[in-house]
Every structure is written in C-alpha cells, then in structure tokens.
Amino acid sequence: MALFDRNQRHRSSFGSTATIVVFVAICLLGLWMMSSPQTVPAAMSASSSEKVKADVKEEDSSIDATNTVKQDSANIPLAEPAETTTTTEEAAVSATDTNGATTTTGEEDKKLDGAGEQQLPATSTEALPNVQAELLTERAAQNGSFTTQAAESTEEKKRDDEKEKKGKKPKKKKKKADADAGSSFTWKLCNSTAGADYIPCLDNEAAIKKLKTNKHYEHRERHCPTTPPTCLVPSPPSYREPIRWPRSRDKIWYHNVPHTKLAAYKGHQNWVKVSGEHLTFPGGGTQFKHGALHYIDLIQEALPEVGWGKRSRVVLDVGCGVASFGGYLFDRDTLTMSLAPKDEHEAQVQFALERGIPAISAVMGTRRLPFPGNVFDVVHCARCRVPWHIEGGMLLLELNRLLRPGGFFVWSATPVYQKLPEDVEIWEEMVKLTKAMCWDVVAKTKDTVDLVGLIIFRKPVNNRCYDKRSQKEPALCEPSDDPNAAWNITLRACMHRVPDDPTVRGARWPVPWPERVRKVPYWLSTSQEGVYGKPAPDDFAADMEHWRKVVRSSYLTGMGIDWKTVRNVMDMRAVYGGFAAALREMNVWVMNVVAIDSPDTLPVIYERGLFGIYHDWCESFSTYPRSYDLLHADELFSKLKPRCKVLPVIVEVDRILRPNGKFIVRDDKETVDEVQRVVRSLQWEVRMTVSKNNQALLCARKTTWRPTDVEAR
Question: Which regions are flagged for Polar residues bias (predicted)?
Fold first, then answer.
C-alpha cells in the first residue's frame, strides 16, 4: 500500500507541473496568434490542404462516399469524386481498420431533389455501414476443372442445321472492348414503343420485323441489338415504393404495373383483379380457381412421393401466368423458376416479379432454354398452351433434357379430363409420345372442387426402356450432343441417355432439402480442381464458409441495408451459389446467374436446391425493368472488360434495379472506381467504398432520378 501511495504522489506532482507548463504555452501561443491573425490560415490553405488532397488521392481515389453531382442536369462530368466538406446534413465517414482497409460511408437518408422528381420515403431504420475486413478477402478465381457454357455451346452450334445459316450475313466478330472514352456522360431516356417496360433483347422491333416466320414463336425469342443500349428506361409516372413480401403476393400498386387487360381477360379465373389503387391476386389460376395451395396439395395427395420441400425442391413452371403456383410453393419450402413469354398475356411476368415471385420472360420456341440438363426436380404445366405433341414432341423433349432422371412432369390441361374431339386427339398423341419417351404414368386424378384433372409422369432412372424400344422415335441423341449446352442452341428432337456411371451427375437423386444446400455434390471429386484452385469438394466448402462469414458479419449488419425492404435478389456472377446459400434463412430469393464465359458451375447450384440461369452480360437480361431489390456483382466487371464495355452493363443494372434498390460490387480497385464514376453520373447515392490491396467494394443505392431528354430514333 505504501508503494502504491508513493507512486501516486509522485505522479500527481509530475502531472501538476506538466499542467502548468502546458497552460503557460497555450497562453503564449494565443497572444502570438492574436498579434499575427493572417499567418497561420494562409499557410494552411496553401500547403497543408493540398497535401491532404494528394495523400487521399494517392491512397484511395474512391474515399469520398458523398454524392456531389448536380441535381438538375443530365450531363455529368466524368471525373474523380470531388473533394467535399463534411457537414451534419451530408455526412461522410472515413476509417481504416486494423488490416489497412479504407472505408467510407454516406448517409442513407440523403435524397436527391431533381426537378419534378418523385421522392421515395426515407428508410430511417438503415444505419451507416461499418468497416468489415471480411469484405475484401481476395480469392483468385480460375476455371479449374470446369468448362464454360460458351465452350459447351460452341461445340453444339457447329452441329446445328446449316440451313439456318444460309442467306444470313456472317456476324461480325466482337472486338476487345476499349475503356469507356469521353469526358462526360450524357444520359437520355430510351425511345421505345415499350416505354417503361422496355427489354432490349425482347423488344428489338427492327430484328423482329425481319423474321420470315413466327410459327415457332420466333418473335418472342431473344433478338439483341448489335450495340447494347446506353439509354435509361423511364419509370411509370406514379411509381412508388413496392409493397413488401409477403403482402405483395396478394396485392401490388396499380401504378407500378399499370396494365388492366389481363384482369379483364382472366379475372373470372382469379388471376388478377383491379381494386382501387391496387391490383389484387386471389391466388387462382386457369386450373386452380379456388387457390394455388389447394391445387398444390392435390398434387401431393395424388402422389405423396412428390414430397414438396423435401424430395422436390426446385421446380420449373412453364407458362406460369402471374406465377401464383410458384408464389404459394414458398409455403411448402419449394423454389420455382416461373417462365412465360413477354406480352403473350399482358405483363404476366412483370406482375410476378412485382409480387416478389421468381420469373423470367422466355418462350419454348426454337432454342433450348438457358438451363443445364438434368436439374429440375419437377416440371409443371397448367394449361400452359404449349403444343407438346407436335413436330415429334420437340418441346416435350426439351423438358426431358431439363428434368432429373426420376423427376416428375405434372400436366394439368383439358385433354387430361375432357372429351371434346380436340382434347381427345391431343390426349391420344400425348399417350403415344410419352410412352415412346419411356415416361411412366405414376398418378392421374380429378379434383372435385376445381373440376379439373391432372396427370403426373416420371422420367426414367436408367436406360433399360430406351434399349428395349421397338420404335426408335424419338431418337436418342448422339453421344457428342452435350445436354448442358444451352446458350443459343437450336432444339433437337432427341433424348439424352441417363448416366450409367454412379459417380456422374444425374445418376443419383440429391439428398433431401434442406440438407442438400450444405452437402457437397457426390459428383465433385478430389481429383477435380475447383474454381479457386483447391480440390473441388474443398473449394465448395471453402466458398460456402467464405460467403457465410461475409454475409453474416458484413452484408447483414455492416452495410446499412434494411433487409426487410429486400425480396428479389440477383447474384450476377454466382460460382457455387454460396452467396445465395448464406441468405437462405432470409425472406429473399436469389437468381444465380452463371456467365457463359465463367466456369459452368450452374449444375452445382441446382444440386444444392437453389436455382439460376446462364447469361451473357454483354447482352440484356430477359427480365422487366425495376425487377430486383438488390444486385450483387463479385468480380464480374473486370472479367467482362475483354469482351464488352462496362458502361452498357451498368445501364442494364440501372434498368433491372428498382428505385431505392442496392448494388454491391466487389472487384479490383480500378474497376470499382470506374463503376463508381458511372453510378455517380446516374445520380445514385454511393453509400460505402472499401479498398485494400488493390481490391475494392462499392455499395450504392439507385435513386428515382431520370433524365428529361429522349434519345432520337
């Protein structure tokens, strides 16, 4: 105790002396400053300020997270982010974590006040992001043992009918894209008859007019412009913040999707109704007027083996209408990819997406659907108006390609239960065709409530039936025909053999959901090199753990995103689906996109009980404007640069993303800076930037701003 007291007295005496000295020094300094009022400020302005600016620019040109663009102009300078002064109303926070990552954040509630702009309500619950070291874990990506969809499809295209190429001018080869040139962006609205619903690859009027026939729905297929558009799609005049899930399943704002023809045409079947300022969805459909859940349970009762949410997890709904079937399968823990052609029934896919239900605009026409083979547990068609039986069963054979061995095709249509001459004729043709395809009828029933019937077929699990067939039509595909080649591949009237090797994908059914989301697919072997360089099973596990850590430690809590406002999510460059798997307990669904020049890991994603699609980001995506709440791009843009420019891709992001939607970009610093310049010119709010070891992350929020000028035709 004596020692403690002695030390304490010594420190007190020393502290008192130091205090007196400091006080005297401050007084002398104050007197000197009062006598020389101009000396210090001038020196600080001339030298220290410039030094600070230089240091900031040298370390990280993306430090400023505060939008400083003018609100009343569509011509935005292409320049480095401006130096700004932080105020209480325009806060920007800069910090460096213990690992040297530099982070900046901007206030979420800061709104742009463009002339005549409708303002979305502030999301006051969103906090400013925190610094998270996990955000910038660098992982060098490569192809490993995986081929790419582009390579798979190239081989198939060589075997396409040469007659399709006759009379056509050869396509010009794409040159390596140069960096976006120019010193400014001049934004204009797109001048399209589709207006606020413009989908560039589906609304290419010039290309559609040149088609020689529409017999196979060629006019509903993708016809992308030679040069990707760089105009902005206008929003509907009275667009407002979407109603959130799950209430959105029952009703949406009319002004967000201002179309009423479908309500007039299908209202009696409980598809959609107009109710004041809302469009309401009673949950019905052509084959289930009394609700989708009753119909879903009818399928389970007819064949308990279906096992919604256990055995059957991933479903394809063809001709989905407003996607109530897929919307209510969420109640059975089942994920549905709903598809329908654009405008076949006015805005049906747009209704689905606005409701928070997964859907894409696609048609069963002349090309394969953009999915790998043997991935869907169930394929469903309820009065989907697809002529399955014609032309050798070409379209039904496409479903056969997509369906897992042992998977089910649920067909609910009038030929199943009505005796009109046309129905009888179609039924007889379908019986012949499915028997020739070796599909077994495993259930057939008629509902006493909706007074409709359905039949369930099962795809074979081995090749015994194929080998015993007396008739050889439909033919078996050539061994060289890759069932996974799906990008711009012409349909073929043939069937692929079921894998005989038990170690090959498709030979076994996945483990039940939800275990399958965590389970390493049995067909990934240690002899295969994964995308990140490890043996494939270890690569898969490491990817899952990486995204689990990033999502839980950073995305959910450290980026200021109010996840209650997020429903429709897209991972623009999915690998193993780890990002989607990490979000599976959230009230969201994730569209996993595997780029055609990336390792073809989409089968892995489906094996996990998730879903996705092939796409080339040098082209427009087959969805309506304002479809997604959050877009995630992990090392996407840097990998696109050798083939296409960054600018049109970000314009496509702007088209897809809803006002107030969030955009997360992870890439090299140069690329992230380039992306940041473009989104700032779009008057988006840059909410956070992080940089470390030449890797960077950007989180931005799209605003409601639109330019006033319209592009010339």
Answer: 63-74, 140-152
pLDDT of residue 153: 76
Distance CA 689, CA 522 (A): 39
Q: What is the pLDDT of residue 22?
A: 47
Helix, strand or coil, per DSSP, at residue 608: coil
Return the CATH fold of 149-157+517-702: Rossmann fold (3.40.50)
Q: Give which of 218, 159, 223, 155 is closest to 484, Cα–Cα.
A: 155
pLDDT reported for residue 218: 94
In the chain, the amino acid numbered 187 is W
State the Cα–Cα distance between residues 372 and 84, nearest whole angstrom.
Answer: 50
**How many CB atoms are closer than 10 A to CB 9?**
10
pTM for this model (two decimals): 0.82
Q: In the numeric block, which tokens belong to residue 313? A: 């997890």
Q: In Å, how far are 153, 486, 600, 608 from 605, measured between CA atoms? A: 19, 16, 10, 5
Fold for 285-495, please state it: Rossmann fold (3.40.50)
| Residue 526 backbone class (left: φ over 0; alpha: ψ -120 to 50; beta: rest) | alpha
What pLDDT is stored for residue 135 in this prediction? 55
Q: What is the pLDDT of residue 569?
A: 98
Given this model, what pLDDT does residue 459 score? 98
Could you write out the DSSP letters of every residue in 34-78? HH-TTHHHHHIIIIIHHHHHHHHHHH-TT---S----SS-SEEE-
pLDDT at residue 173 in the model? 46
The answer to whether 182 and 224 have CB atoms below 8 angstroms apart is no
What would the two tokens of residue 363 be?
Answer: 């048609």
Contacts of 90 (CB under 8 A, 6+ apart): 66, 84, 107, 110
Cα–Cα distances in Å, from 597 out to 6, 438, 616, 646, 672?
75, 35, 8, 16, 21
What are the Cα distances from residue 622, in Å, to 174, 574, 627?
21, 17, 11
So what's the pLDDT on residue 9?
A: 38
Q: With beta carbons less than 8 A apart as the criterion, state whether 595 and 616 touch.
A: yes
**8 Å CB contact between 257 and 658:** no
Partner residues linked to 299 by β-bridges: none
Give the DSSP letter of residue 305. Answer: G
CA proximity to 92, closest of 709, 692, 686, 591: 686
Domain 149-157+517-702 matches domain 285-495 at the CATH topology level = yes
Question: Residue 106: its pLDDT value, please?
Answer: 57
CA atoms of 426 and 165, how far apart (whole Å)? 33
In the prediction, which pLDDT does 103 show?
63
Domain boundaries in the chain?
A: 149-157+517-702, 285-495
**Smallest Cα–Cα separation from 415: which of 380, 436, 392, 384?**
384
